[in-house]
Design a protein that fits this description.
mainly alpha
Length: 167
């Protein structure tokens, strides 16, 4: 009987049955119809944000008023980008404004509006994080990544005002 080398571990004949659980899983690509639904949802939300931001009054705070106008321009720019991609992909862009607009308008104070805006911007980032790995179109993916990064930047910019106010 041959002696076994006890210093070296013996290789297994096959990987364990659960090895697939440790391998990275690729997100399934979305169909064109699924992409269109998600893009239209984002478009309606961005339109709601843009309209809501334009309605927000910053009082005597010129810096905050300027910031809100810049964020509104970003929202409007992303509305145009989303509509352009929908049309390019053969789908009709939604003309609806998302429910976020009414929720934002119903908030009694600027602080309440900014807090809701923060939650809305964070929700968009989460949606984009979920969507991006499933989008095959490179041009769309690049624009959605820019949209995500801009939302993250705007969250940080608005946080300075939220942090300055008491809860």
């Amino acid at each position: 009987m041959p002696e076994h080398d006890t210093e070296r571990p013996r290789p297994f004949a096959s990987p364990p049955c659960y090895a697939h659980e440790f391998e990275p899983q690729e997100a399934p690509l979305l169909t064109a119809a699924e992409v269109a639904v998600r893009l239209n949802d984002l478009l309606e939300g961005e339109r709601a944000g843009a309209r809501g931001l334009l309605d927000m009054q910053a009082g005597d705070d010129a810096a905050l008023a300027g910031l809100l106008a810049e964020v509104a321009r970003d929202e409007a720019r992303f509305c145009a980008m989303l509509a352009r991609h929908l049309s390019r992909l053969g789908h009709a862009p939604s003309r609806q404004t998302g429910a976020f607009y009414a929720k934002l308008a119903a908030r009694p104070t600027l602080q309440d509006k900014l807090r809701l805006l923060d939650r809305g911007q964070r929700a968009v980032v989460r949606l984009l994080d979920e969507l991006l790995p499933s989008v095959e179109d490179a041009a769309l993916r690049d624009d959605l990544l820019e949209m995500r990064d801009t939302h993250v930047r705007n969250i940080k910019r608005c946080a300075a005002y939220l942090d300055a106010w008491p809860i």
